[in-house]
Request: fold
Amino acid sequence: MKPSLILINPWITDFAAYDLWSKPVGLLYLAAHLRKRGCSVHLIDCLDVHHPLMKEKGPLPLPKRRSYGTGKFWREKVSKPPPLKDIPRPYSRYGLWPKIVEQELAEIDSPSAILVTSLMTYWYPGVQEVIRLAKKIHPGVPVILGGIYARLCSEHAAIHSGADTVISDHGFDSLWTCLKAINIDLAEDADPALPSPYPAFDLLKGLDYVCIMTSTGCPFRCKYCASHYLYLEFCRRDPAEALEEIIYWRRAFGVRDFAFYDDALLANPETHALPLLEGLARLDLDLRFHTPNALHVRGITPEIARLMRRTGFKTIRLGLESSDMALHRELDNKISPGDFEHAMRHLKKAGFSPRHIGAYILIGLPEQPIDAIVETIRFAGGHGAFPYLAEYSPVPHTLLWEKAVSWSNYDLTGEPLFHNNTLLPCWDEARKGCLPKLKRLVAETRERLRQE
Ligand code: SF4
Reply:
């Protein structure tokens, strides 16, 4: 008999969450591999905004959806975990009503194992809760936890998640070994040399958009980012193969919106982004592209900007982080003087307006001067990009981690809940007090750009 596996994308538990093209792509890749290897796969997506039973039976108000497949999640206020009890903000569980997850779990007879993914380290309460529920409905069935929290905080996850096994290495090999150890036999991979199957987006209800990964990892080593830890090397797919995938989702499922999940889509564009965009431009598929993960400003050449416009890029996010070049030299070396100005000039010349272009501005870094942030907001707006504040979350295994730990008043090493960027965990109270002023300046800058 085929092994029957339940795959779960858990709830988010946080002070705020928004569906900005959020899909569990790693879990969907895993689902596709497991199907290819002869398993029967049941996906439970706790963040499903289209679940029919939520509309019929759920007690929660319908989440407002916005353009291009983005919008709010289902949301229910819940008690704060004790370490966050003094934070004066409501805390919520985002996603399906637990009774519906329970019902979905109960509908699957005798699963061989339950595989749970995880994302942000400080969302682990949602992971714990779903594992508790899975074990209640299917006692004795092995539960295996993987994903980003499992990798970054493997010891914490082993002690606190409730999973029987925590997979903390990169790739699927450890999982295959683990499944074998519990007597789940996978069919031989027909030909491991063939390209990976596409992630199983077809298992989701209501496919508003597809997230595309044309590469994994990043050639940069920004001190605040864990990309190099999560992906051991920078690997890129053949652009022709990525193009085939986009065509597949468009033709087979009618998908128009695509969010690039690459960390470095524009690295060495001549051999990657350029042929991909040229291929898209030739096909004229009436698509819309979005780059929530930020593009490298150095990669925006006149040709790339022209092709982005031609192929339907609608949401462009640039990784500006700061206009302070000394900060870049210290932390990431990904921008040099003049790079951002050039990128903006090329984008505007290609026909993009400020409403398409956002610049991420990093705030909450240890020792970061407020004046430099004010200057960066003005700099982004002055060049025609909407400023977006991106609050720093301290991440274990990054080069900045030790400094973050020494600067924070929170116990970052002992409690992942304190990695939450809403807390601005590496800022003192005086800096945190400047946040409303920074948000006001962002709002004014955006308003001015809207009217230009
Ligand atoms: S460029 Fe982006 S993805 Fe790459 S290391 Fe820096 S922050 Fe991470």
